[in-house]
Amino acid sequence: MMMNILSEIAGRIRDAICLIPDAEARGKEICIGMDGTPTTQIDKIAENVVLSYIQEKNIPLNVLSEEIGLVDNGAKEVLVLDPIDGTSNSVMGVPMYTVSMAIGKDSLKDVRIAYIENLVTGDKYTAEKGKGAYLNGIRIHAKKRSNPDRLMMMIYMGNGAHPDSFALAKRVKSSRAYGCASIEMALVATGAADGFLMNSENNHRSIRVIDIAASYLILKEAGGYIYNLDGTEFDMPFDLGHRSNFLAVANREVYDMVMGRSGRCMHKHRYGVYANMSLPIAVDTAKKVLKALKGEDVILEKEIAAAMGKEGTPIREMDVDIMVTVGGDGTILRAMQNNNASVFGVNAGGVGFLAEIPVDKIEEGIARLRDGRFRIDERLKLQTVFNGKRLADAVNEAVIHTDTIAKIRQFRVYVDDHLATDIRADGVIISTPTGSTCYAMSVGSPIIDPHVNALVMVPMAAFKFAARPIVIPTSSKITVELPMDKGCVLVIDGQEEYNIPGQSKIEFSMSSSYGRFIRFDNDFYSRIHEKLESGL
């Protein structure tokens, strides 16, 4: 009964989009969807067809869709909808775009019905939980065995793809990127492909639940598997704000072939070691790190290498996957400012809020690192532009401060060219969520969960009590104007310092690059309790 309803919905969508006159009209952007991405004409028309059908037929389903978000109809189940998966394909005339629909309650694990239809060819992929998967009514099965020398992989290679994805494409016999996740997953389910890798270093480009809900069940019912990149079972809540990377495979052996049997990564890691040489224990701690990494490919930063009588490399030139830092949060920030590797912090300093392990846990921590028992915590960075020049990105914050002690300055702060506040203060801080637990917190910023896509502007010792922090979407541009003919100092992450003359403007926005931390089990709130509440 419900499968017939989904089939009828797909038919109505197909008929409706056929009335769009041309490709230009299909791709016309008409608004921003609830997922924060542009909504095109074809997307909105397809979504409206579904919503109208649900209302017209009084179907007992809530709807979670790309454009409108969650429509609560008071039902017990949710229709997870991607009205057009492969919008760019539809605009370009590539015959590979679908309507993707799944029905469940709260997350992928409880999806019970799935329906995908290629709106050009008419091919229909369907599945019901416990009843198998089908293509045009004929049962399909994922490969039970895969030849490691002849792997055929579907790989996301779009804007934001992780470098490891391109490395995998070079290793396997054949690879494809079709720009339609539902079809790419379905090809694994039919046995045409061995796996599908979604690995984006840009979180905004990672998969959403609407993209994968239907194909998830179809692949599972065809005998395939879906994993997080750390090898754990994959699941996603019915929430547009949640994005993930994953590896879908026809059989368990493909995971081992792609990721390595230990589940560590798609290639053997190369490690870097970087230390704060002002710490008395820096050399001894670095020696412990090297001992724990024995047998691995390790590069030492030149200063710690010189202190140990070894060859070293400037940090900017270190070609490594994981940077092990010895020091405090400043050491971590310096590493991230000078190298794009994921950072594993050994706290040899003070609070060490950003570090992952203390010095006495080096052997245990490095063992977990080598075994791949970790996750990558991606944090947004702040981009700063002054006089048309892009300065260093910030993981924590950018601080604009008076260049003269005890002399306040005037700051006009604009958000998307609209005046947000005009204040006199010692300075202002533009902080990322990561930085909200640092300098910004000390002058009154709220603590922001790192998964919240927001920046915060925080006045420093403002003359008016009413001058308060402002939380700003990461999609916005923030401009700070210095109207007085008196200078300030711009400091990025406490590392890079720039003299800013009066009557200047500085622009801030979210960077396209991310900071990556190696994390074990502790969540953000446990870290706050341990480091900030109990540790001080």
What order do the helices and strands come in, and which of them pair?
Blueprint (H helix, E strand, L loop, with lengths): L1 H16 L5 H4 L2 E4 L5 E3 H17 L4 E4 L3 E3 L6 E8 L1 H6 L5 E7 L8 E6 L5 E5 L4 E3 L2 E3 L11 E4 L7 H9 L2 E3 L4 H9 L5 E4 L8 E2 H13 L3 E3 L15 E2 L1 E4 L2 H8 L10 E6 L6 H11 L4 E4 L1 H6 L14 E6 L1 H10 L3 E6 L9 E2 L3 H10 L3 E12 L2 E2 L6 E6 L6 E7 L2 E8 L1 E5 L7 H4 L11 E7 L9 E4 L4 E4 L6 E5 L3 E5 L4 E15 L4 H10 L3
Parallel strand pairs: 3-5, 11-12, 11-13, 18-19, 18-20, 20-21, 21-22
Antiparallel strand pairs: 1-2, 3-4, 5-6, 6-7, 7-8, 8-9, 9-10, 13-17, 14-16, 15-17, 23-24, 23-34, 25-28, 25-32, 26-27, 26-31, 28-29, 29-30, 31-34, 32-33
Helix pairs in contact: 1-3, 6-7
Structure in words:
Strand 8 and strand 9 (133-135) form a beta hairpin. The relative contact order is 0.08. The chain contains 14 helices and 34 strands. It has an eight-stranded mixed β-sheet with strand order 4-3-5-6-7-8-9-10, with helices on both faces. The protein has a six-stranded antiparallel β-sheet with strand order 24-23-34-31-26-27, with no helix packed on it. A six-stranded antiparallel β-sheet has the order 30-29-28-25-32-33, with no helix packed on it. The longest helix has 17 residues, at 41-57. It folds into four domains: 2-121, Fructose-1,6-Bisphosphatase, subunit A, domain 1 (Fructose-1,6-Bisphosphatase, Chain A, domain 1); 148-259, D-Maltodextrin-Binding Protein, domain 2 (3-Layer(aba) Sandwich); 270-374 and 520-533, Rossmann fold (3-Layer(aba) Sandwich); 380-515, Tumour Suppressor Smad4 (Sandwich). By secondary structure, the protein is α+β, with helices and mostly antiparallel strands.
